Amino acid sequence: MTAQTAGPADRTRPGRVATLVNGAVARLARRGVSLYGARELAVRGRRSGEWRTVPVNVLTVDGVDHLVAARGVTQWVRNMRAAGGGELRLGRTVEPFSATELTDPAAKVPVLRAYLRKWAWEVGAFFPGLSADSTDADLVAAAGGYPVFVVDRS
User: Which one of 10, 18, 53, 93 is at 20 to 30 Å from 68 when CA atoms are compared?
Assistant: First the structure.
């Protein structure tokens, strides 16, 4: 599967190293330590209603915060779509938010480009054939495989 052919139902499973790193990042976020903008995302399960957590990178583009699902349509994405928001946690700080998904592939381009510019070293493996220097056309073609949410804390 390439990023260009990734569809909304596709997702990339993390490898063993990524799973270990995610666990460490989540533990640090719970203790109030943010690695390069990392937070713990908490969102209610769409079936259980129980809080589910996962480490995420919050990206600010033009003063607006975004969450990018680098692995595609994962469980947290499905839960976010159902719940319409959640909480961003860092230590004892809990920030409730509502989320709006960007559906226009062209609107995702500057966000995906900024995300790759900032975190390609961490998530580049989930964006095969893409980089911050990819053309707009390549990013538009791949955008359907990468859900992007606008975070509104108001």
Answer: 93
Determine contact, residues 53/94, Cβ cutoff 8 Å: no
Partners of 89 in the β-ladder: 40, 94
d(CA 60, CA 129): 24
| Cα–Cα–Cα angle for 74, 59, 91, rounded to 5 degrees | 80
- CA atoms within 13 Å, Cβ hemisphere of 96: 5
Q: Tokens 């493996």 label which residue?
A: 125
CB 68 within 8 A of CB 57: yes
Q: Tell me the pLDDT tens digit for each residue of 5-45.
A: 444 345 555 566 555 555 655 565 565 555 567 899 999 99
